[in-house]
Amino acid sequence: MQLSVPPFSELLANTRESAVHLEMRDDYGTNPRLEAWQRGDRVDWNDRESWWHPFHQTIADAVSRGVVIRRARVVSEPVSEYIRWEHDATQGNIAAGEEVRWLPRSQATGFLVPANDFWLFDGNLLRVHHFAGDGSHVTDELSTDAEMLKLCASAFEVIWQRATPHSEYTI
């Protein structure tokens, strides 16, 4: 069932128990923070005001309400430049309260994974992300289809169990 897609912050604000996010791409296009990192600018993690964004606050607010937020990334190795930057930037996700794990794509054989990135909220609402070949975001869709929810939840849990916690994953 196709539903209109409210902003992520609204979806997370309505989440009571859990939100899981699966990322499958090695490149998500460019953005100003990536471009700064490519120029050699590094985040001063001791200067929270310089890197804390509304997204981080949205995550922190949900976590403070008791929502468990887990993110799993399936990545090719050796990793792309985008993933090197994302690995560095993940410290912000962790500081906001997310749990993050990494799974090398070579270890993702033997089980099925969705072809698209997604967020699953409380196990009953799926936000699927669609990207162009260059990594740019095209559109999102929402689904409450029980079979799709079950498949995505199952795939996420298999990946989560096999993945390496961020603090232990080195690139």
Describe the protein.
It comes from Streptomyces hygroscopicus. InterPro entries: DUF6879. Residues 8-170 form the DUF6879 domain. This is DUF6879 domain-containing protein. A hairpin with a 5-residue loop joins β5 and β6 (137-143). The protein is of the alpha/beta class. The chain has 6 helices and 7 strands, in the order αβαααβαββββαβ. α4 (54-64) packs across α5. A 7-stranded mixed beta sheet has the order 6-5-4-1-2-3-7, with helices on both faces. The mean pLDDT is 96.
Mean residue pLDDT: 96
Beginning-to-end CA distance, first to last residue: 39 Å
- Low-confidence parts, pLDDT < 50 over ≥5 residues? none
Fraction in helix: 25-40%
Structural category:
alpha/beta
Largest sheet, in brief, is: 7 strands, mixed
**Rg from Cα:** 16 Å
* Quaternary organisation of the protein chains: single chain
- Range of strand content: 15-25%
Number of helices: 6
Q: Give, in spatial order, the strands making up the sheet with the most strands.
A: 6-5-4-1-2-3-7
Order of helices and strands: HEHHHEHEEEEHE
Q: What's the shape?
A: globular
Write the layout of secondary structure elements.
Elements: H1 8-13, E1 18-23, H2 32-38, H3 48-51, H4 54-64, E2 68-75, H5 81-96, E3 99-104, E4 118-121, E5 125-131, E6 137-143, H6 146-162, E7 164-165
Parallel strand pairs: 1-2, 2-3
Antiparallel strand pairs: 1-4, 3-7, 4-5, 5-6
Helix pairs in contact: 4-5
